[in-house]
């Protein structure tokens, strides 16, 4: 993970956003005062319900850019998977899950489950049977759970493709297509990528609806 030191000259405060008092309080506790440029560009659009293609480098604060919208929409009293984040690797999925848990900590009963390959299915199936609000995982393993019927997505309202270009590099194209095809049509889809190769455009054209595009290429 990269440390970020957002500077006052480029970014607006989170208090500009229509976030719940609980999320505002959590952000203040975490010391998140000003939005990073990708957050400032994408959060107003994502919170307004738009599908989004967001292009920005690693360490730019993309996790909060999708975590805050999905947490805003989450109903903690509905114990069903309402948001899903696809990531290229277990390490990234763990980082994303950790950041979502940090941002969700004002609600003590939000369950975030990671579903990645390389471990046996059984414990993940048991955890899913106990219920989760948010799943974060790699496309292959999530596809496995869908094929076996251990993951239900009928309550899903937000699908996030994180580091989409890396997922394609790792050969996850068909798995992503399978998973996205099993999501309810009425949902918000947020696609984050450091680069925008043709494969990403193809995925976006297939699974995003009237997406807004946010590009921050000159970031360091
Ligand atoms: P990316 O996904 O773009 O690589 P991350 O979402 O992992 O970036 O964020 C990088 C680091 O910056 C994390 O440690 C995160 O906690 C921190 N961070 C994100 N947004 C802010 C913010 N607005 N203010 C302060 N720190 C932030
Ligand atoms: Mg990231």
Describe this structure in words.
The chain has 220 residues and is of the alpha/beta class. It has a single domain, classed as P-loop containing nucleotide triphosphate hydrolases (Rossmann fold), CATH 3.40.50. 42% of the residues lie in helices and 15% in strands. The chain is globular and about 45 Å long. The model is unreliable at 1-9 (pLDDT under 50). The structure holds adenosine-5'-diphosphate and magnesium ion (MG). Magnesium ion binds at residues 62-63, 162.
Give a nutshell description of this structure.
This protein has 220 residues and is α/β, with parallel strands linked by helices. Helix content is 42%, strand content 15%.
SSE blueprint and pairings:
Layout: H1 21-30, H2 37-47, E1 52-56, H3 62-73, E2 83-86, H4 90-103, E3 112-115, H5 121-130, E4 134-137, H6 139-148, E5 158-161, H7 164-169, H8 173-181, E6 188-193, H9 198-207, E7 212-216
Magnesium ion binds next to α3.
Organism: Denitromonas iodatirespirans
Domain Helicase ATP-binding: 43-214
Family: Belongs to the DEAD box helicase family.
Descriptors:
15% strand; binds magnesium ion; globular; alpha/beta; disordered N terminus; Rossmann fold; binds adenosine-5'-diphosphate; 220 residues; 42% helix; seven-stranded parallel β-sheet
CATH T-level fold name: Rossmann fold
- Quickly count the domains: 1
* CATH homologous superfamily descriptor: P-loop containing nucleotide triphosphate hydrolases
> SSE order, as H and E?
HHEHEHEHEHEHHEHE
> How many β-strands, per DSSP?
7
Total of helices: 9
User: What is the strand content?
Assistant: 5-15%
- Tell me the overall shape: globular
Class derived from helix and strand content: alpha/beta
Named at the architecture level, the CATH assignment is 3-Layer(aba) Sandwich
Which CATH class is shown?
A: Alpha Beta
Report the helical percentage.
40-55%
Radius of gyration: 16 Å
Domain DEAD-box RNA helicase Q: 12-40
GO molecular function: ATP binding; hydrolase activity; nucleic acid binding; RNA helicase activity
Domain Helicase ATP-binding: 43-214
Keywords: ATP-binding, Helicase, Hydrolase, Nucleotide-binding
